[in-house]
Amino acid sequence: MNKGMTKVSVMYPNGENKTFDMDYYVNKHLPMVGSLLGDSLKGATVEKGLSGAAPGSPAPYAGMGNMYFDSVEDFGKAFGPNAEKIMKDLPNFTNIEPVILVSEVMV
Prior knowledge:
This protein is 28% helix and 27% strand. It is an alpha+beta fold.
């Protein structure tokens, strides 16, 4: 993505009794989110946690989704009206409360 873009990272922390259905997330949740956010969404990636820094240690996050927008304002305009519908879908793939980071792409 380009320098100056807004990146929204949605991270799902791993832990005991936490569940995350990656298949549902990739094949149902993300396409629904993409259709709701429309042209404001400039790109997206999904990452599956494999391990922590030490080989064989548990991954600190089960998964992470990243969305890219031209600006924070574009993100707000696209997400705001659709937030309730997007958030209502979370129980279909996880019992984890996501951690969200809005950041600026620097390189």
